[in-house]
Amino acid sequence: VQLVESGGGSVQAGGSLRLSCAATGVVASTSRMAWFRQAPGKEREGVAFIVAGGGSTDYADSVKGRFTISRDNAKNSLYLQMNSLKPEDTAMYFCAAGRVWQTGYPYWGQGTQVTVS
């Protein structure tokens, strides 16, 4: 299984970024997938979640109304649209996946850096 994130970068506060996660070895449409982030000196936190098979999503309170998680089954990819970015959104963002019979998220990408100034 390989998860490869892209789309990170530097942006001014109020701007937008779209993160992508290309999955191989796991079928995105039938997997539980999520975006996590970790800022320097802070614990990793779950940002956005999408259930396996369906379109139900959930978000951390800190990003509700600003971030949108989505999945393109044809491309076997996961996305995170981030709008109205704030300096406190600065972190390394990770894509994670888990098959329905697994606990949690056994598979992780290497991460993509998002910096908001």
Provide structural commentary.
The chain has no helices and eleven strands. Helix content is 0%, strand content 52%. A hairpin with a 6-residue loop joins β4 and β5 (45-50). 29% of the residues are buried.
Can you summarize this structure?
This protein has 117 residues and is mostly beta strands. The protein is built from no helices and 11 strands. The strands form 2 sheets. Strands 2, 4, 5, 6, 9, 10 and 11 form a 7-stranded mixed β-sheet that branches.
Largest pleated sheet: 7 strands, mixed
- The percentage helix is under 10%
The number of distinct β-strands equals 11
- Count the helices. How many? 0
Task: Compute the average pLDDT.
Answer: 95
| Secondary-structure content class | mainly beta
Order of helices and strands: EEEEEEEEEEE
Give the low-pLDDT segments: none
Percent of sequence in beta strands: over 45%
| Envelope shape | globular
Distance, first to last CA: 34 Å
User: What Rg is obtained from the alpha carbons, in whole angstroms?
Assistant: 13 Å
